[in-house]
Amino acid sequence: MSLAKELDATQDTQEDVIFPPGDLYSDEPPLETELHLEQIILLLKCLEWLWRDRTDFYAAGNLTIYYSWKKLKTESFRGPDFFVVLNTERKTRKSWVVWEEDGNYPNFILEILSESTASTDKELKKKIYQDTFRTPDYFWFDPYTLEFAGFHLVDCQYQPLEPNQQGHLWSQQLGLYLGIEQGLLRLFTPTGKLVPTPEETADKLAAKLRELNIDPETI
């Protein structure tokens, strides 16, 4: 088929497409284990607590990203285990619909490996995130074997990240380190301090008050 005919055929196909609204629900399957869920919730709570005063990001877990150039829900979609989009409005969404988000893709993606998904996460998804999403930071973590790796996009190709002395990997997009702490993947500040959950922050404050002979229950 000639180029002109191919273009005509494409145009005819596009004219027949009925664009659905961008308000699409996530269509992700249940998480494989409770540990997968615990890991996602932990990262989400820590990041949202650390960035509690910011309104320019969106973070989610096990949520569908729709990115079909034809704006169809039935094709071209993926559901990263955890992802962060920067320079966007912080609000509740049913899914991430690229064509309704000014064409923005995640800046950071983490996949949590399992026996059934590891090969897909390391090969197919990695290629999609590199070539289509152009996501700058891609990480994966296995909560059972503790396999942990990270990549940064350089000249359109993912390059593996080198760990620091603590074994942590730097996320340029988040401005934070990621590292394993007590069997779970945690976030760390540029100076190496653990990013706490709200509960951990409260516990630390309560302990400090007790050191000062103040009962936190009376405050």
Automatic annotation (TrEMBL):
InterPro entries attached to this UniProt entry: Nuclease_put_TT1808, Restrct_endonuc-II-like, Uma2
Top-level lineage group: Bacteria
Transmembrane segments: none
All residue ranges annotated as the Putative restriction endonuclease domain in the record: 12-181
PANTHER family recorded: SLR1095 PROTEIN, SLR1612 PROTEIN
Protein name stated in the entry: Putative restriction endonuclease domain-containing protein
